Amino acid sequence: MRNYYIAGNWKMHKTRAEAAELAKALAAQLKDGKHKYLVAPSFTALETVGAIIKGANIRLGAQNMAAEEMGAHTGEVSVLQLKDLGVQTVILGHSERRHVYKEDDALINRKVKLALKHGLEVILCIGELLEEREAGKAEQICETQTVKGLEGVAATDLANIVIAYEPVWAIGTGKTATPEDADAIHAYVRKVIGKLYGAAEAEKIIIQYGGSVKPENASLLMAKENIDGALVGGAALKPETFVPIAKFA
Ligand code: 13P
After folding, report:
1. How remote is the CA of residue 197 from the centroid of ligand 1, in Å?
2. For residues 137 and 131, what is the distance between their CA atoms, to the nearest angstrom?
3. Is 166 in the pocket of ligand 1 (CB under 6 A)?
4. What does the pLDDT look like over 180-228, one tens digit per residue?
5. Quick one: which atom of ligand 1 is closest to the CA of 234?
6. Residue of 11, 65, 7, 9 lying closest to 38 (CA atoms)
7. Is 166 a catalytic residue?
8. Which residues, including other chains, have CB under 8 Å from residue 16's CB and lie 6 or more apart?
9. Ligand 1 proximity of 228 Cβ (cutoff 6 Å)
10. Which of the following is catalytic: 94, 96, 103, 139?
11. Residue 94 is among the residues annotated as catalytic for this protein
12. Which residues form the domain of 56?
């Protein structure tokens, strides 16, 4: 049985004071939650939020990291700096990183391997653009992003990998993939993992869905066989919307 994993990606929102308020509310309201939880604030709020959720059942995540450990990389944040702040998980390959900041599969793969080398859990995001879906290429795109993102990752490291399927056309648009469409891609990606690492690993890997997840659609999505959690954007910014998702019935 795979455990559900519900993660909040706060993107470029919240000052430290605002982040602290949200983190305090979540720590209190998710105390009796039954699933695995994570929040990923901006770098600037990691220390603040980390201190609040220390000892709670919520993991501390970062939204990105550099592909190098240290050096002359103005504006980047290193894995060592994240670990120093108590970060346990890093989101890599988010569609905003891929499409707005032009990160390619090779760069994302270097980040994945570096994060794993330092013992971080990785949430590797994959997902197709609308025109790719309309051209019938959704599976192919997700397969390529999965295979290239995990190139050189050993089976022994797979326990620290979570895949997040986020169809780009569903992110921040209010358009959710239907549970059936999402489940079909999740099943396909699980098969891809099976080809790479074997059936047992494919059965174990957590595949989150992301893209306009809301309290109203969370349980329908989670009911699907291959959907093991959610990576939530907009609805993660308020306890009123994140807690019901995190505690979906
Ligand atoms: P929304 O939930 O706002 O669509 O964002 C999803 C997302 O990108 C999470 O990483």
Report:
1. 28
2. 9
3. yes
4. 999 999 999 999 999 999 999 999 999 999 999 999 999 999 999 999 9
5. 3
6. 7
7. yes
8. 44, 45, 48
9. no
10. 94
11. yes
12. 5-246
Identify whether the C-beta of residue 189 lies closer than 8 Å to the C-beta of residue 164. no
Q: Three-state SS for 161?
A: strand
Digit-coded pLDDT (tens) for 137-180: 999 999 999 999 999 999 999 999 999 999 999 998 888 889 99
* pLDDT tens for each residue of 92-111: 999 999 999 999 999 999 99
**Nearest ligand 1 atom, CA 172:** 4
- CATH number for the domain harbouring residue 150: 3.20.20.70
Question: Token match 């013992």: residue?
Answer: 119
Rounded to an integer, what distance in angstroms lies between the CA atom of residue 57 and that of residue 51?
13
Q: Please compute, for residue 133, the number of CA atoms within 13 A of its CA located in the half-sphere on the CB side.
A: 14
How many domains is the chain partitioned into structurally? 1
User: Which tokens sit at 23?
Assistant: 């983190």
Helix (H) or strand (E) holding 151: none
Q: Does ligand 1 have an atom closer than 6 angstroms to the CB of 52?
A: no
